[in-house]
Write a structure and sequence with these properties.
Helix content: 25-40%
Distance between the termini: 15 Å
Structural class: alpha/beta
CATH topology: Rossmann fold
């Protein structure tokens, strides 16, 4: 079984870090619709903190800056999933407090409880959540497909190196339309 992970497509992340955001959102939305239509699970992975940010250590430079700025707290508009990709009935939302979609979340339990072994990874930032989640997924023996045009990074050279040199060691790298065309069977 397959799951499509939409990672960190929250208002603040999309507005601050997405490259060509309208086109990106359109492609990811088409893939999510195709995934739902095929019976695949659609999982939104979001960053969210409790009031007061008790999950954030002062030793974590990335999340300390979010805490200092008051961003991505549960209920804050910055933490909302972008309306273009709003969860639909049957979708699952997983909240994380670290970069990887697996660290400290129930994602693995949700996947294994639904016999999911293949992940279609889309997200912002490629060098952040996509890279960390892919590494974690590979270590847990999931089959992963990184959807290249469903991921975004402000640094085009980092995006290129990850897609061409790093990700192919642990995943299939494919485009949205290729994934839509093959969604009823595994990508090889």
């Amino acid at each position: 079984m397959t799951a499509h992970l939409l990672m960190d497509f929250q208002r603040m992340v999309v507005d601050s870090y997405a490259v060509d955001k309208e086109a990106l959102l359109g492609r990811v939305k088409r893939l999510a619709v195709a995934a739902r239509d095929s019976g695949a699970m659609v999982i939104h992975v979001v960053v969210g903190f409790q009031p007061g940010y008790p999950e954030v250590s002062g030793q974590n430079s990335v999340f300390s800056s979010l805490k200092a700025a008051g961003l991505l707290a549960t209920g804050d508009p910055t933490a909302e999933i972008h309306p273009e990709l709003a969860p639909q009935p049957g979708d699952v939302v997983v909240t994380k407090q670290r970069v990887s979609a697996f660290t400290g979340t129930n994602l693995d339990m949700v996947l294994r409880s639904n016999n999911i072994d293949t992940l279609l990874l889309t997200g912002i930032l490629t060098q952040g959540v996509v890279l960390s989640t892919l590494r974690h997924a590979a270590d847990m023996d999931y089959r992963a497909v990184v959807v290249a045009d469903g991921c975004s990074d402000k640094d085009p050279e980092v995006q290129r190196v990850l897609m061409e040199k790093i990700f192919p060691n642990q995943a299939r790298v494919a485009m949205v339309e290729e994934c839509i065309g093959a969604i009823h069977g595994p990508l090889r």
